[in-house]
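Help needed: design a sequence for this.
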């Protein structure tokens, strides 16, 4: 089987390349480890698609890595080469890879998810919820504060105290009238 050298399908004003394989690897190589990414991509994509994607990657990027033609374990080795290019090249030099047929993209199963990251995120979320529970007031406390505020406003408005001249009423004061005069 002879696979012709693919031509990079690019937009003239932007740096977009259409390839399901490259789009998937580009968007998953930072999230999923290399071994898992290869295990996901190898059965999901045909050998011709992977070969074509590798050639497209080397055509559309400027990398110092040499494009090596593989014979044994071709799929796996080609996927390793592509992942290495994505991990070593400057992200600004990588074109935008898009998928035309989204149904060709494999799903990420729970077998390939980093459980330690999920647990870490869960612990952070749990500590945030506990902080909210301890720092914020309950509805009953808020209603009580509003009621207290209304009472204090009504007391201040009913008394004839000139607050502009510095007069005020303390919340916990009592007026004692003496009959000594």
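Sure. Designed sequence:
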């Amino acid at each position: 089987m002879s696979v012709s050298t693919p031509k990079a399908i690019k937009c003239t004003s932007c740096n977009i390349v259409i390839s399901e394989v490259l789009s998937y690897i580009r968007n998953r190589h930072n999230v999923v480890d290399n071994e898992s990414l290869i295990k996901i991509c190898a059965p999901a994509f045909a050998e011709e698609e992977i070969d074509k994607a590798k050639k497209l990657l080397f055509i559309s990027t400027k990398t110092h890595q040499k494009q090596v033609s593989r014979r044994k374990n071709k799929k796996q080795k080609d996927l390793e080469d592509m992942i290495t290019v994505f991990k070593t090249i400057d992200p600004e030099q990588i074109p935008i890879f898009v998928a035309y047929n989204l149904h060709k993209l494999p799903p990420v199963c729970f077998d390939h998810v980093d459980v330690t990251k999920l647990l870490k995120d869960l612990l952070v979320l749990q500590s945030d919820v506990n902080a909210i529970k301890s720092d914020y007031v309950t509805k009953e406390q808020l209603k009580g504060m509003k009621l207290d505020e209304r009472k204090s406003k009504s007391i201040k408005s009913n008394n004839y105290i000139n607050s502009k001249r510095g007069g005020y009423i303390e919340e916990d004061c009592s007026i004692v009238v003496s009959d000594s005069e």
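The helical segments are 20-28, 34-44, 47-60, 74-88, 115-135, 139-158.
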